């Protein structure tokens, strides 16, 4: 994809929180080209915000797609994470998971909506993440089905606790999920051990489809790296724009 020079505006904010031990969470907000405060925009929320912006280049990619007319203008919000507690927040069985997901739905999203002209209807909100970020994005959609219905998961770390949560869900016909995984991710070492991400994603896909979710799924050559995930960001954004 060609990327013409597009002026980007990225703002940084600190979201106060009663639910997080640290008392706040840093976020970065990319405004679309031609941003107009009188227009309400769809919004993409990214887990691992700093990495998604720096290595996933999502703000640059989104701005280029908008400038080229391939997608409608969107805001992109990157939610930073302290990597020392990332698994505890993102994993479905993590001891900080409930507090993080509550913060996300009850504090972060209202904070952004109060300060930026974003659409809050579920159809116009996308949760995006890679690895455990993909898994927690899905967990948010399971926990708050009236708020989140669109998920982009790049090599989602669907550990047994995530699979159990999907299996326990009822009707998921409201859910749309874009899933990719690299075929070389069959023995990736994580802080919880070595996992076959291809098998995990195939299982998660089956569980989701059995419950009526609409799944856009792809496997191709690639490893568990940002260099692989970055290549799927344009297709994920275009998928969201086409829903």
TrEMBL record:
Q: Which UniProt keywords apply?
A: Hydrolase
GO function term, MF aspect, one = carboxylesterase activity
> What Pfam families does its record include?
Esterase (PF00756)
What EC designation does it have?
Answer: 3.1.1.1
- Which EC class is this protein assigned? hydrolase
Any idea what this protein is called? Carboxyesterase ES-4, Carbohydrate Esterase Family 1 protein, yjcH3
Taxonomy, top ranks, is: Bacteria, Bacillati, Bacillota, Bacilli, Bacillales
Q: Which gene encodes it?
A: txxe 522-CE1
